[in-house]
């Protein structure tokens, strides 16, 4: 450890020395950019040294400043969307420059960084990249900049709640998307215990975001494990460029014309949502800077109201309701996952009675079941039954009498080979929909020189939300913090950060529903009551099958608490609160203690550095190297992971390099590679080769070969959790857990064969696990694209791609025989064979006067699937967006309208699967700029026609959001 620290210190010293040498030869370029017509400053203007990647952007006062080692004469290029480019040769002083821009149309001049980890024009990017700048953020036709990302070409989204959204590109969308990376100012903001980003719940506030860049598809060669379906990079504002105080007030309505019924039986009224944002930033002498940002949102979340009947064997909807299907399992109904076969229950009662009577009689009655079968005929009268019972000791008679309906039911076949489930509770009665989101971020910045900066940054968020994983998780008062220390220069950076996750009062909804049932009546009592009364209703009362099921349920449900009954609502809430506030690991059914609360205090520690060595080669080539190390520190107290009595850490290491060279003025070739090693898996090398061919001015063809991979998540490796109301145990897929539960020696059986065996239509088939356990999945990606600016006002971008996936991580359900009881396990495994996907996208932007017209369409398709592979492509075949905007249709008034449409598709996840219908929706906003008070008033609607839709099966329907906002100094 000491050697590692010493090496790191030496590297830091070298970086500092190099930076100081560089700055000793640099000059400062500074000035102001204004609108030639209005004379007002223009923020967000790109000012760069022509032919180089060196430059900066103007702040809200139109000012810019940056350092360069270029010596005069050189040319500055000043560009901004909607204005004509200005170029000026600098031969002498480079400070206090003044530029005026005329309204015009310039596209494709934005500078991006993430495509190659070095600044370059978006037109010249070697891979597909999308960018949202400040102008688009301020004028987005969406309630927030994060919502606006779904309008980007090729982007899919899964909405799980009002504040929890997951993004994806090029197939395999998911609720908690572990194949999509999301970085904030270089920090991976995944929740360490989940391994996926929690939307923008903890992230950049609306007023502090500078730009968003999206890399569709694989990006492991530059950004490491994960990200095989895309990488999103969000950058916050620099306090040296964007100073002063800003605030924004936003309020509005949702749940308009919502048909959801509340627990009190009343239909919900439109609900208000409120949001307040603030940002403060200040710098002193361009040496010391500080900023602070704050955001608070309060709203009523969307409701999960899908009560469709669901078959968990096939993971698909089925016909039937609670009234028509005794084994009804509603998608957003919890507690009804607990299900048993009626004949299995009857046999279980017989076995328990046999053992109990044998023990109570000291072995004089060794097999009461056989005795009853031989001596009590099916046509026995009540007198015959009384005489039969009278032959036994008085203390045994009630037990033996209780056996009769089960024995007779099995012998006559009246008890069917039918599964029945317990009566569940609707999600609306279990989940906390009072959404809250509090975000704070701040930073301190010190410039040692104009190009070397030391910064300390913190992002912290807390709130209440709902997300969908293998269950619906009610996140209450959870919080996540990101804390970073970074030293960076013109050619290097070295940073360390940590992500601290705290689950607060969060709980699992299906366990809550099941355990409320258990507190009122244990399943060991409920199912025998149901089966026994079903037989009585059929054999003695002559009721039909449907009537007998209804009667049996009414008897078994006696004493069940109804949250919609005013006389029982308080008792229901008392039970629910007890279970919500008790940890899962504290559950003791024998003692009547039940818990649905999970306790996740997992952390991520990450260290990385990069150095650009291009200057050592006189910029003849671009050469970058870097390395990183991270540790996942899992802490769930046994409520998620197998860490009740031990500590679990996962260490990962990586190194990468990238070499690029331009051949003449028309072709650039870049080669990159990265090596990653996780302690539980073999090392991985992921290469990348890209080429950009300039076929004409502002017209480029790009081609790339990329590879990507993702390690099994922390839960894929170490989870040990009961879900589905306790009906299934999820375990890690590494060898440790296969051995812990003897799945390699006491082989389990496939779910399909178990179902057939229970139904009497087949035999059990063993499932063979790979002794090496689950391993990383990988993708090989090919892309060909073309991007061109035609004239100054028309830009097109199109691409086609093909991906080939190997060792896809999926899950399997198996049943293991443990002393006659079959236990269900869910285990992550790798799918055999390869999966191929392909697709493409086309986008265009056209500027005419002050109008901007935009449109894009994407196409995604999956090829032939390996045998027994669950198709979780989860992506519409066709999706498109159309937009029109004008920043100033009349003086100080602008608007933006966007239409989004996607095709129907099938959704598959560990929670639920089914068809997601096609839908189209319109978002719009109108804004009024008030220069005299430096403010903007915006009126907007998301889903303007209020047509409720879903983006993923099992998640809430999304309706309209009508809002108005007032922003000062945005």
Structure description:
This protein has 970 residues and is of the alpha+beta class. Helices cover 16% and strands 43% of the residues. The protein has 15 helices and 54 strands. The strands form twelve sheets. It has a 22-stranded antiparallel barrel. Strands 10-17-18-13-14 form a five-stranded mixed sheet. A hairpin with a 2-residue loop joins strand 13 and strand 14. Helix 5 (342-360) packs antiparallel against helix 8 (397-412). The longest helix is centred in the N-terminal third of the chain and has 22 residues, at 2-23. The radius of gyration is 32 Å and the shape is elongated. The two termini are 47 Å apart. The model is unreliable at 1-24 (pLDDT under 50).
Q: What share of residues are in beta strands?
A: 35-45%
Give the termini separation. 47 Å
Radius of gyration computed on alpha carbons? 32 Å
User: Structural class from helices and strands?
Assistant: alpha+beta
**Number of E strands:** 54
**Main sheet?**
22 strands, antiparallel, barrel
Assign a percent range to the helix content.
10-25%
Q: What integer is the average pLDDT?
A: 91
Distinct helical segment count: 15
Stretches with pLDDT under 50, minimum 5 residues:
1-24
Shape by Cα distribution:
elongated
């Amino acid at each position: 450890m000491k050697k590692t620290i010493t090496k790191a210190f030496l590297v830091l010293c070298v970086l500092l020395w190099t930076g100081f040498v560089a700055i000793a030869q640099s000059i400062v370029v500074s000035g102001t950019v204004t609108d030639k017509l209005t004379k007002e400053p223009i923020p967000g203007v790109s000012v760069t040294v022509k032919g180089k990647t060196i430059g900066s952007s103007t702040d809200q006062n139109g000012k810019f400043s940056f350092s360069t080692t270029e010596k005069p004469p050189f040319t500055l290029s000043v560009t901004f969307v909607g204005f004509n480019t200005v170029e000026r040769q600098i031969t002498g002083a480079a400070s206090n420059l003044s530029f005026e821009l005329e309204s015009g149309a310039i596209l494709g001049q934005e500078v991006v960084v993430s495509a190659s980890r070095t600044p370059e024009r978006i037109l010249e990017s070697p891979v597909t990249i999308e960018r949202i700048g400040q102008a688009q953020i301020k004028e987005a036709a969406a309630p927030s900049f994060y919502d606006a990302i779904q309008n980007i070409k090729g982007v899919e989204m899964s909405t799980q709640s009002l504040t929890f959204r997951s993004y994806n590109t090029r197939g395999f969308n998911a609720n908690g998307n572990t194949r999509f990376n999301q970085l904030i100012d270089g920090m991976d903001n995944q929740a360490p215990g989940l391994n996926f980003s929690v939307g923008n719940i903890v992230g950049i506030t609306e007023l502090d975001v500078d730009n968003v860049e999206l890399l569709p598809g694989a990006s492991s060669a530059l950004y490491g494990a994960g990200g095989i379906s895309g990488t999103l990079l969000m950058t916050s504002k620099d306090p040296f460029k964007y100073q002063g105080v800003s605030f924004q007030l936003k309020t509005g309505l949702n749940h308009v014309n919502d048909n959801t019924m509340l627990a009190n039986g009343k239909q919900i009224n439109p609900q208000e949502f409120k949001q307040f944002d603030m940002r403060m930033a200040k710098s002193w002498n361009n040496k010391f800077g500080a900023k602070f940002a704050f955001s608070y949102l309060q709203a009523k979340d969307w409701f999960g109201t899908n009560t469709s009947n669901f078959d968990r064997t096939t993971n698909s909807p089925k016909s039937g309701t609670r009234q028509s299907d005794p084994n009804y399992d509603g998608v957003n109904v919890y507690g009804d996952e607990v299900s048993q076969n009626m004949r299995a229950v009857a046999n279980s009662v017989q076995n328990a009675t046999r053992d109990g009577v044998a023990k109570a009689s000291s072995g004089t009655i060794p097999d009461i079941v056989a005795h009853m079968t031989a001596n009590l005929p099916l046509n026995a009268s009540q007198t015959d039954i009384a005489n039969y019972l009278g032959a036994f000791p008085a203390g045994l008679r009630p037990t033996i009498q209780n056996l009769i309906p089960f024995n007779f039911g099995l012998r006559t076949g009246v008890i069917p080979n039918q599964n029945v489930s317990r009566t569940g509770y609707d999600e609306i009665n279990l989940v906390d929909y009072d959404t809250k989101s509090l975000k704070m971020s701040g930073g301190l910045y010190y410039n040692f020189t104009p190009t070397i900066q030391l910064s300390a940054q913190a992002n912290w968020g807390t709130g209440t939300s709902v997300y969908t994983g293998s269950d619906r998780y009610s996140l209450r008062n959870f919080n996540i913090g990101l804390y970073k220390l970074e030293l960076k220069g013109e050619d290097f950076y070295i940073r360390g950060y940590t992500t601290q996750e705290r689950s607060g009062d969060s709980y699992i909804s299906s366990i809550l529903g099941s355990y409320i049932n258990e507190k009122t009546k244990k399943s060991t009592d409920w199912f025998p009551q149901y089966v026994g009364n079903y037989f009585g209703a059929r054999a003695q009362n002559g009721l039909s099958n449907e009537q007998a099921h209804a009667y049996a349920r009414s008897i078994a449900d006696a004493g069940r608490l109804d949250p919609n009954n005013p006389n029982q609502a308080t008792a229901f809430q008392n039970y629910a609160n007890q279970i919500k506030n008790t940890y899962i690991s504290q559950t003791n059914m024998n003692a009547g203690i039940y818990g649905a609360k999970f306790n996740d205090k997992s952390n991520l520690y990450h260290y990385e550095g990069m150095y650009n060595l291009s200057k050592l080669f006189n910029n003849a080539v671009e050469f970058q190297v870097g390395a990183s190390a991270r540790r996942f520190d899992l802490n769930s107290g046994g409520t998620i992971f197998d860490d009740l009595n031990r500590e679990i850490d996962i260490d990962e290491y990586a190194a990468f390099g990238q070499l690029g060279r331009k051949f003449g003025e028309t072709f650039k070739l870049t080669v990159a590679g990265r090596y990653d090693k996780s302690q539980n898996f073999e090392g991985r090398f992921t290469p990348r080769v890209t080429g950009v061919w300039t076929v004409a001015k502002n017209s480029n063809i790009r081609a790339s070969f990329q590879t990507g991979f993702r390690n099994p998540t922390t839960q894929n490796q170490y989870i040990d959790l009961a879900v589905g109301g306790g009906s299934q145990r999820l375990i890690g897929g590494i060898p440790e857990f296969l051995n812990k539960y003897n799945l390699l020696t006491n082989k389990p059986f496939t779910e399909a064969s178990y179902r057939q065996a229970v139904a009497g239509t087949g035999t059990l088939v063993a499932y063979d696990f790979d002794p090496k356990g689950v391993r990383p999945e990988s993708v090989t990606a090919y892309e060909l694209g073309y991007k061109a600016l035609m004239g100054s006002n028309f830009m097109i971008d199109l691409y086609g791609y093909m991906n080939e996936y190997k060792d896809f991580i999926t899950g399997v359900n198996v049943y293991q025989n443990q002393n006659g009881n079959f236990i269900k396990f869910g285990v992550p495994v790798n799918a055999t064979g390869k999966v191929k996907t392909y697709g493409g996208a086309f986008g265009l932007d056209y500027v005419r006067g002050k109008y901007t017209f935009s449109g894009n369409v994407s196409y995604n398709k999956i090829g032939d699937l390996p045998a027994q592979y669950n198709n979780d492509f989860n992506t519409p075949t066709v999706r498109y967006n159309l937009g029109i905007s004008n920043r100033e249709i009349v003086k100080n008034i602008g608007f933006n309208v966007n239409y989004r449409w996607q095709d129907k598709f099938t959704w598959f996840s560990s929670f639920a699967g089914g068809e997601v219908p096609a839908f189209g929706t319109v978002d719009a906003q109108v804004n009024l700029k008030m220069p005299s008070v430096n403010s903007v008033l915006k009126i907007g609607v998301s889903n303007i026609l209020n047509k409720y839709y879903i983006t993923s099966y099992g998640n809430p329907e999304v309706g309209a959001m009508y809002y108005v906002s007032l922003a000062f100094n945005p």
